[in-house]
Specification:
By secondary structure, the chain is α/β, with parallel strands linked by helices. Helix content is 21%, strand content 14%. It has three helices and three strands, in the order αβαβαβ.
Length: 73
């Protein structure tokens, strides 16, 4: 299931609430694309940190066979 589309203008893609996020399947990968400093200050439980500036080079870490949620500020 797609929650957001890369490159879509803000508001043009579906968004989910924190309650919906906590209710997602345990198989869902959660990716925090904020800076490492922001991530270390607090993040969604079980989220991995791949800063947005590194995302293109680290796409191999994002599986294609499971749901993925990406969030920032």
């Amino acid at each position: 299931e797609v929650f957001a589309t890369a490159g879509a203008p803000r508001g043009d893609h579906p968004q989910i609430t924190s309650d919906q996020l906590s209710g997602l399947d345990a198989n869902t990968l959660i990716v925090d694309v904020r800076t490492p400093t922001e991530y270390s200050a607090g993040h969604v439980p079980n989220a991995i940190n791949i800063p947005v500036d590194d995302l293109r080079d680290r796409m191999a870490e994002v599986p294609l066979d499971q749901p993925v949620v990406v969030y920032c500020q």
